[in-house]
Specification:
By secondary structure, the chain is of the alpha/beta class. It is built from 3 helices and 5 strands; from the N terminus they run βαβββαβα. It has a 5-stranded mixed β-sheet, covered by helices on one side.
Length: 167
């Protein structure tokens, strides 16, 4: 008997508010991924999630979800972090935009009901400037190629049969 394996479904969700300069980094990375040639062995979907917390509700078919977003930790602007939702202490989050808590709460609810992605990785970028404006700060703009490489490494680390929980 032949077993047919389908490529894992990976969704990259770029979150952020484009009106608040570096807060929009996730959207800028999603756009960069959509316009760059890439060779991957997965079923890949790149979504511009903007500030819509409900964007996460359509992610239940993903084997792996990679979220790219601005994350303020007080670190050096441009620092890139990789973590999972379970690494976040919701009591210590400083909310800089409306989508942050809703995204985490939605992922938590999806997991509890068994409907969420099997594997979630968050790539966070420390913003330098979240004042009003449409352009990224120069420091964050220069980080986009490195962030795209990190996201591609995450995509390519996904096995054809899908990632295991807590990979």
């Amino acid at each position: 008997m032949t077993t047919i394996t389908h490529p894992a479904k990976v969704i990259v969700l770029g979150m952020g508010n484009l009106l608040l300069r570096d807060e929009g980094i996730g959207v800028h990375v999603a756009n960069a991924l959509q316009s760059s040639p890439m060779s991957v062995d997965v079923n890949l979907e790149v979504i511009d999630g903007g500030t819509l917390p409900d964007a996460v509700l359509s992610l239940d078919t993903a084997d792996k979800l990679i979220v790219v977003d601005a994350v303020q930790t007080g670190g050096e602007p441009g620092a890139i972090y990789r973590f999972r939702p379970e690494d976040i202490d919701l009591d210590e989050i400083t909310v800089t935009s409306l989508h942050q808590i809703s995204l985490l709460e939605n992922l938590w609810l999806m997991e509890r009901f068994g409907d969420g992605p099997k594997n979630v990785v968050i790539i966070g970028v420390e913003p330098e400037d979240i004042s009003w404006g449409l352009e990224l700060s120069e420091k964050i703009q220069q980080r986009i190629p490195q962030i795209v490489r990190i996201v591609l490494e995450e995509i390519n680390s996904t096995s054809p049969d899908g990632p295991e929980k807590g990979e």
